[in-house]
Structure prediction request, 226 residues.
Amino acid sequence: DVKVTQSSRYLVKRTGEKVFLECVQDMDHENMFWYRQDPGLGLRLIYFSYDVKMKEKGDIPEGYSVSREKKERFSLILESASTNQTSMYLCASSRTNRGDQPQHFGDGTRLSIL
Amino acid sequence: GQNIDQPTEMTATEGAIVQINCTYQTSGFNGLFWYQQHAGEAPTFLSYNVLDGLEEKGRFSSFLSRSKGYSYLLLKELQMKDSASYLCAVRDQFTNAGKSTFGDGTTLTVKP
Prediction:
């Protein structure tokens, strides 16, 4: 089974802090994704990556950056956390761009910015 | 871009059948996924359709009509554990990385 592991289930940080969310997958997937999930707004894509050191903006990249130095690890960075970034963050991975490959999700990090 | 619509909430009775609809308007299409997400948990993959027609997997089936921009997920013999959110996601034809756009999800409540 594919395992996508997010470093924290719950995280509390303060406004202005630099926050790192880590995600590791163990199935040698090429593609990795970061989403945030908010009530009534569904899953929104922040950034994704299709290879090491490659990254592309999703629908809501403002205030975020990412890093993919190794194939198995994809980090989301909040450069200067703000209260409107309080949310559930979900990481996902998938195999190459064959159409039938689903995304596999981690358990999520519930981030609170005070 | 993609626009995906699903009902926000549905309620059904244990043992019954429920159909969750999804309509989409897209600039390109390369498949439609259904995911299940229990409260507080990660979404998990249920089904994939890329050609028109019905795909059956046990109690769950998924249907696609590309010309109508329409899909549904059919759940038979409902069980209490089927209470969850169901997410429809459309894969963009012109994307690297299998990027998909997700609908807001349909919260299904199964009652005894």
Remarks:
- Chain A has a mean pLDDT of 93.
- The interface with chain B takes residues 4, 30-31, 33, 35, 40-45, 48-50, 56, 58, 90, 94-108 of chain A (CB under 8 Å).
- The radius of gyration of chain A is 13 Å.
- The longest strand of chain A covers residues 31-38.
